[in-house]
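Most newcomers find our protein records easier to grasp once they have seen one. To make this concrete, we reproduce a full record directly below:

…
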Amino acid sequence: MTVASRCLWVAALVCLLSPSRLADAQRADDVTGLVAEPSVRRALDIARRSEPDTITDQIRLCEVPAPPFGEAARAAVYADAMRAAGLANVRIDAEGNVVGARRGRAERPHLVLSAHLDTVFPADVPVRVTRDGARLRGPGIGDDCRGLAVVLAVARALNAAGVQTNGSVTFVGTVGEEGLGNLRGVTALFGATLKGRVDRFISVDGDGYGITHIGVGSRRYRVTFRGPGGHSYDDFGRANPVNALGLAIASVSLLQVPTAPKTTFSVGRVGGGTSINSIATEAWMEVDLRSSDEGVLADLDTRVQSSVRRALEEENARRPGQQGLTVAIELVGRRPAGRTGQGTPMVETALAALRALALPVRLDEGSTDANLPMSVGVPSITVGGGGAGRDAHSPQESFDTTDSWKGTQLVTLLTVVLAR
């Protein structure tokens, strides 16, 4: 072997035995070894056999209303279900989250396994669930009644199988994940209830088996133009909030945003005015801005606000000497962007678990409770709860339970390996 060949061979060996590659191999071996352990194997078998009970929980919880800022009734039912699943110190914290504990041999590592209680639907939307063969239909049946049911199923499977983890696991049902809830539940969890005590975080949200490791941040605004108003004929020529709103929407619609990272904006709602023959005293819009990069999101935020102020100036400039319009730009929702990088132990462990259970391997990005812990550096992912959902966030939402036990098994295995 020549000196050059020997150097290339040594370099290749160093690459193969580099710490990152060894760590990845070790994580895969850990997951494969865990699946073969008798108590873990029992837990996985129980997760599969008890899937009818998990589906019953999914339906039962979904038929308890949990509108935005109105999750208390479902929280009370969920707390009882946690106690029945054998969890300790079950309580409802000051924000309304349901929290239950499963102790390990030690307190750390401390894993949080979470799903959210709230839905996007107001209190007047009927929440009855119907079943047609394998398909369930009802508002919130997949997002996130499925996650809530899987979290309970994991607790039952671990207890029934006698699995003992090195670290502790806290099981949580959070409030305020949807809409203008602004992640208030998970924020309170990290800021007060479990402050400084969380090492790893899993959110179970929705269907399928994808691993969400990129948190898409958002900023949401309510923009309101106001003016003196008046009669459409007698006071013609006065500055009109509706005109300014139209100018602002047109300007925002022309903004250019990057495709990578994917960055979006949307004017979701508009309103205002008194009557068809009046100059409005008020006109408003609600705007949603999103990106997985905080810097890009901040830049878009600045440009949207500039568009709004230019629209105000333009409408007022056309009416010199008159009472002008004003504008209020109110931040009504904010989610931090974040990520748990591909190649980190958390993500590689999740991918190894998918492979160990012969499930499709897919990494996703999204906006979930995991955004908050990601943004503060806690290794975090969101996992689907199995099955197949359709029409999320609509009254026609449905969930196909075919082989949904595979999702329950996945979350069970992840809980065991990440609490080691």
